[in-house]
Amino acid sequence: MDMTRLRGTAVSPGIAMGEVLLPRRVVFTSRKELIVEAQVPDELKRLHQAIGRTRDDLVKVKDNIREKMGQENAFIFEAHLLILEDPSLVGGLEAIVRDDKARAEWALSKTNSRYEQLFESLADDYFRQRKSDVSDVLTRVYRNLETRREKEKTPQKEHILVAHELLPSEAALRLTRELTLGIALDMGGQTSHTAILARSLGIPAVVGLRDITRWVKDGDFIIVDGTDGEVIIDPPLAVRREFQAKKDKYENYGRELQKTAKLKSETLDRVRFVPQANIELPEEVSLALSMGAEGVGLFRSEFIYLRRESLPSEEDHFEIYSRIARGAHPHPVTIRTLDIGGEKSLPQLNIEKEPNPALGLRAVRFSLRNRDLFRIQLRAILRSSVGKNVRVLIPMVTEVDEIVDVKDIFEDVKEELRRKGEAFDERIPLGVMIEVPAAAALADLMLKEVDFVSIGTNDLIQYCLAVDRSNEFVSYLYKPFHPAVLRLIRSVIQAAQRAEKDVVVCGEMAADPLSAIVLLGFGLRTFSMNPIFIPRIKKALRSVECRTAEKIVEETLKLRSAQEIEEYVIEEILVRHPQVFLTGQPVEAKPK
């Protein structure tokens, strides 16, 4: 067979080479097997026994994961136990058995299809990936309907795991540092639990390959490039040697980064910078701190709504925010209020479909229109702030009047808590996200109303350039180094400096070494990103002088295209600080 190259999404960096292992898949029935009324009680009993066995399985898996990978990864199965115990899920299964007079297999199949359709209808990738959690739980219950279950076998030799989709519990069973060399999946994205586990274990992974399971069979030799998002099937010897050299180089680099995570966050000329973490789950805090994070720069609170079909209560919010605040203390934790609406719809919120959701009722617009929900969230955030390390971040603000409205509600909620005798941080910082050009243009006025700003470069670039980066026809126009984008970001950073207020970048530019150097030159000092990228950014920024970055960016503003700017920055860094691009021992800062 000739060599085949497949492109996917790189979710865990590194190079893996080895033989394919294809695990057996569970396929939900498409046949509705009917029962008579008299059989319903026994079928419900059978369903509940399967649920009980599933609960026992999940507890064992959770304990196993805690022992193998640490508490920060066991959270996945705590979430699965919550799903399994959700009254609406169990009640829905019971109702199908009773009303349809059907076997439990059909009830599970029908419920799984309903959830798949629900999650696939969401535009946001993070929310779409959560369908695997529900499918995982339902798959386990499905297997447990059979009292004589086939024992799940763990792999016995080194392999590259190839599958259509790897459910979290399957990942927990099959992924080991010792035997799993790499992962290649048809499905999945950056925020799937498989991706999180792979990154935690340091296993190279590529997902979203669409049909790799059709291209390979057990025992085939493949290469997984988790850095560039490529899988090579049946490579010739010359290609194997090429990637072995690349693998060795990357592993040396990885060992260097592990050391960098524990070093001081300062440039060669001793300018201090602060790496922080963007997280979606409270249990990611310990992983972030181990990677060198000095706080949580962005907690996306939307995930709270994904653990239940009903709206979360104030106590639900409070419990999660408190866990994050305690886990990160004394480092700061920035909680972004609900950024949902339009294309990020959830069933509990009953949001109407809009003709242009990206420009519609979302984020702060939704919160100001649904003030009871907003007040619940603000009360919970305030109550979690007793350790004085919590900050509040309002997304997608476009005018000062919105900030004034938010502050009025915020002060009203504070007064409500005072009357109840509830403790909170009276000086809790309030900030806004700069992610639309209007907010960037008004940054100086907005900074008079808030304590800090956070630049969301992902949305800011899309709105600034009118480019949907997920649209394959125009994604080539999505350019972080576009002169207009850089000028806009610089103007916000300068406005914050003049106002003597904190400014953070929490978009993907913060996680790219070249972009981070440019941002450093603009005056940025706080960078927030996926925890896995923190050591890489620390290495890059520790390898340059801040004054060099400042000189370079002054020249970039005179250039007229993204390509010219990127080439100029690379050339200048190579001449002045080539160690940014090289592996080797981490460099120590020079004395001033």
Task: Describe this entry's structure for a reader.
The chain is α/β, with parallel strands linked by helices and 592 residues long. Helix content is 47%, strand content 13%. The chain has 23 helices and 16 strands. The chain has an eight-stranded mixed sheet with strand order 1-8-7-3-4-5-6-2. It has an eight-stranded parallel barrel with strand order 9-10-11-12-13-14-15-16, surrounded by four helices. It is globular, with a radius of gyration of 25 Å. 45% of the residues are buried.
Name some characteristics of this structure:
single chain; alpha/beta; Glucose Oxidase, domain 1; 8-stranded mixed beta sheet; 8-stranded parallel barrel; 23 helices; 16 strands; globular; disordered C terminus
Put the structure in a nutshell:
The chain is of the alpha/beta class. 47% of the residues lie in helices and 13% in strands.
Quick one: CATH superfamily of the largest domain? Answer: Phosphoenolpyruvate-binding domains
Strand order of the largest sheet: 1-8-7-3-4-5-6-2
Shape: globular
* CATH class wording of the largest domain: Alpha Beta
Overall structural domain count:
2
Percent in helix? 40-55%
Tally of separate helices = 23
Low-confidence stretches: 583-592
Give a count of the beta strands, DSSP E runs of length 2 or more.
16
CATH topology of the largest domain: TIM Barrel
How many strands, which pairing sense, and closed or not: the largest β-sheet?
Answer: 8 strands, mixed
The chain-level structural class is alpha/beta
**Averaged pLDDT:** 86
Could you tell me the strand content as a percent range? 5-15%
